[in-house]
Specification:
Order of helices and strands: EEEHEEEEHHHEEHEE
Radius of gyration: 20 Å
Number of strands: 11
Distance between the termini: 44 Å
Shape: globular
Helix content: 25-40%
Largest sheet: 7 strands, mixed
Number of helices: 5
Strand content: 25-35%
Length: 214
């Protein structure tokens, strides 16, 4: 969907571009989300970037937790979202499912540069994050795992797999990112593609009782 700047001469459409065209890398997208996770449309506490899973020598892009205590695996693609990314994300979620609280604490300590800091308390960081998100009683951590995949265009195969996973209670979100250019500035417009948007007005006009005309 286009972005329009309203000027004295009328609406002016901003030109659309691509991260690749602007010589931006996946690392740039990682950095933006690390600095402002709300780009993904929800509060997230990022606790790791390029997280290495030593036993399998796999490295996931971003690791976060949400206010419901879920571990969130975030995989990013600068270009089109093709289909090994879904299998990568599922692998990473399966690895993280085995983590204990101490593993998250150690990961957060490394990410926040607190190695050797005896005052660092991840439980306090987590509780503060939950409170700021409106959750007064922090839930247990890593009871479940979620997946967020971000890229510039969803291919049909990935979309089909993501919908099937959601139907089978795997919490996966797919976000398309559009990029626009205004002078030297880039503007980014994230849009959640999966889960599919729910119609706001589907029940408007329906009879309250659900019955037919008498």
């Amino acid at each position: 969907m286009a972005i329009w700047r309203i000027t004295g001469e009328g609406p002016k459409e901003l030109p659309q571009t691509k991260l690749k065209q602007e010589k931006m890398l996946e690392e740039d997208l990682e950095e933006w989300i690390e600095k402002e996770p709300l780009i993904l449309g929800e509060p997230l506490l990022i606790i790791g970037r390029q997280v290495m899973i030593p036993e399998v020598k796999d490295r996931l892009d971003l690791l976060a937790v949400d206010p419901q205590g879920n571990a969130v695996v975030i995989e990013l693609k600068r270009g089109k979202l093709r289909d090994p990314v879904d299998m990568q994300a599922l692998r990473y979620a399966s690895y993280i499912s085995k983590w204990r609280f101490e593993d998250f604490e150690n990961q957060a300590r490394n990410h926040f540069g607190k190695v050797g800091d005896t005052d660092f308390n991840f439980n306090e960081v987590y509780e503060t994050f939950c409170a700021e998100a409106g959750v007064d009683e922090p839930p247990d951590l890593n009871v479940d795992q979620r997946i967020i995949i971000v890229g510039s265009e969803v291919k049909e195969k990935l979309g089909s797999v993501a919908l099937w996973l959601r139907d089978h209670t795997v919490d996966i979100k797919v976000i398309e990112v559009e990029v626009f250019k205004e002078g030297e500035n880039l503007l980014m417009q994230p849009q959640v593609i999966i889960p599919l948007p729910v119609g706001r007005f589907t029940s408007t006009g329906k009879p309250a009782g659900g019955g037919g005309m008498q």
